[in-house]
């Protein structure tokens, strides 16, 4: 699979229109009834399905125009977000996947402007989170130390095919939102993300490089 292993993960996700050709064995993107891109290039790392090193086209800009054509032909499956300057491939569950590379030519797509719409975490908040989470090794510890979470949802980790539970703590720290993942074996990991400065869509599935 691709260098980043995301293509392998896509094949396990029924809501993503990716499949393996039974004859050639190549990975392809199937959008709608008639549109196919084969062989598919990973839109996360720019690598092809048989590569074990990053794509040789990594620094080349996309000039093929295929994504723009798809937006005109099938806007229900592919879109361009003018605010963030991002190309998205929509999934059947209502979310979307952000494209860093063109799935047709492997060229680099425009740099996302999403960061302009989020706060920058303060070092003191990061230090406080790390200090607090030293006391947390389980969900029970988390609720004892942090109190009840703001929200709880299911999360699929690309590195783990099982579904985990995500707990978000919003507003506890001004410059960041903490999320804690309870993994299938009962252990937990945590990270944080930057709260948005303006209201944006919340159904995106984003993988930061």
Please tag this protein with its features.
4 helices; Beta-lactamase Inhibitory Protein, Chain:B, domain 1; 4-stranded antiparallel beta sheet; 209 residues; 2 domains; 4-stranded mixed beta sheet; 11 strands; alpha+beta; single chain
Q: Could you describe the 3D structure shown?
A:
The protein has 209 residues and is of the alpha+beta class. It folds into two domains: 6-113, no CATH class; 123-193, Beta-lactamase Inhibitory Protein, Chain:B, domain 1. It is 16% helix and 27% strand. It has four helices and eleven strands. It has a four-stranded mixed β-sheet, with helices on one face. A four-stranded antiparallel β-sheet has the order 7-8-9-10, covered by helices on one side. The longest helix is centred in the middle third of the chain and has 11 residues, at 123-133. The radius of gyration is 19 Å and the shape is elongated. The model is unreliable at 199-209 (pLDDT under 50).
- Low-confidence sequence ranges: 199-209
Q: Quaternary arrangement of the chains shown? A: single chain
What is the overall number of helices?
4
Mean pLDDT: 80
Largest sheet: 4 strands, mixed
Strand order of the largest sheet: 4-5-6-11
| Strand and helix order | HEEEHEEEHHEEEEE
Shape: elongated
User: Cα distance, first to last residue?
Assistant: 17 Å
- SS-based structural class? alpha+beta
Say how many strands there are. 11
Number of domains in the coordinates? 2
Please tell me how large the radius of gyration is. 19 Å
Share of residues in strands: 25-35%
The level of helicity is 10-25%
